[in-house]
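Quick one: structure for this chain?
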Amino acid sequence: MNDSLPPCPQCSGTYTYEVGALLTCPECGHEWSPSEESANPVSGGRVIKDSVGNVLADGDTVTVVRTLKVKGSPTGIKAGTKVRNIRLVDGVDGHDIECRVDGFGAMQLKSAVVKKA
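Got it. Here's what it folds into:
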C-alpha cells in the first residue's frame, strides 16, 4: 500500500487506496475525496475503540461485555445488554461513552467494557 495516502477518516485504517478520484478504505468501506479530508478532520485525532479494537463513533449501538455494578441498584447492568445511540465524550476517570441504558437512565461507560454490535 502507498505510504503517502492518508488514513481513513472514519476508522483510521491505514490500508487506503485510490479508486478514480476517490480514496477508499478496505476495512470499513468508507469512500471520500482527498479534498474532503482536509475540510473534515477526525475529531481532534481522538479515536475511541471498544474492548475488541473496533473504532466507535457517535450513534453506534454497543453491547456490554461484562456485568457492571451500579450504585443503588441490586442487579446492575448485565452482560449482553444492548445500548443504542451512544455519544463519545471526554468523561471523568476514562468514562468516554455517554448513553441511556434502559432501566437505569443516563450514565457514562468506559469503552473497555463494551463491544460494537
